[in-house]
Design a protein that fits this description.
By secondary structure, the chain is an all-alpha fold. The chain has two domains: 1-106, Rna Polymerase Sigma Factor, Chain: A, CATH 1.10.1740.10; 124-179, Arc Repressor Mutant, subunit A, CATH 1.10.10. The protein is 69% helix and 0% strand. It contains eight helices and no strands.
Length: 179
């Protein structure tokens, strides 16, 4: 379903239709959970695909999957929408929907997208940097224990973690993830 080298890109009608068919419904459900508003969720999906179409040349499948790239765009659009609603609170009064759930992005959905983004960024790291970061930060192991298990000096693990984090930040920036 995902456009690849043999299929038309996102900047063509066929490629955009294929991307929408593959991810549109899931993006809609994500936006609906975040905003609690059907119309708002539809607008978010439209804006996601509009931005994807406009920035199709920026999409690099070696950096992130199409799904992750679209969800990163959706997350930014939703945050923009929530900020816009908070600046103009009178807009909320025009809807019949309750305003609960609209002031913040849902923690469970936001955590899921963050997990996808971090996984994609970790895949871009060199294996030794990825292993050091996963062991130190995700598994909470001390550097000395990681060094002993890997059979390398403690300074090497510290260096791998340091440079791995720098590479992880760069990878997330390349993916268009805003802090």
């Amino acid at each position: 379903m995902l456009p690849d080298a043999a299929e038309p890109g996102l900047n063509s009608e066929g490629g955009l239709r294929a991307a929408y068919a593959a991810h549109g419904a899931e993006l809609y459900r994500y936006a609906l959970r975040q905003l609690g508003d059907d119309g708002g969720a539809q607008e978010v999906v439209q804006e996601v695909f509009l931005r994807a179409w406009r920035r199709a040349d920026a999409y690099d499948p070696s950096i992130a999957s199409l799904r992750v790239w679209l969800f990163a765009i959706a997350r930014n659009v939703i945050v923009d929408e929530i900020r816009r609603l908070n600046v103009r609170p009178w807009r909320r009064e025009l809807t019949d929907e309750p305003e609960s759930g609209r002031d913040t992005v849902g923690p469970a959905d936001d955590a899921l997208v963050d997990t996808w983004l971090v996984e994609e960024a970790l895949r871009r790291l060199r294996p030794e940097h990825r292993q050091a970061i996963v062991e130190a930060y995700l598994r909470g192991r001390p550097h000395a224990e990681i060094a002993a298990e890997a059979g390398v000096p403690l300074g090497t693990i510290r260096s791998r973690v340091f440079y791995g984090l720098k590479a992880l930040r760069l990878a997330m920036d390349e993916m268009g993830v805003e802090p």
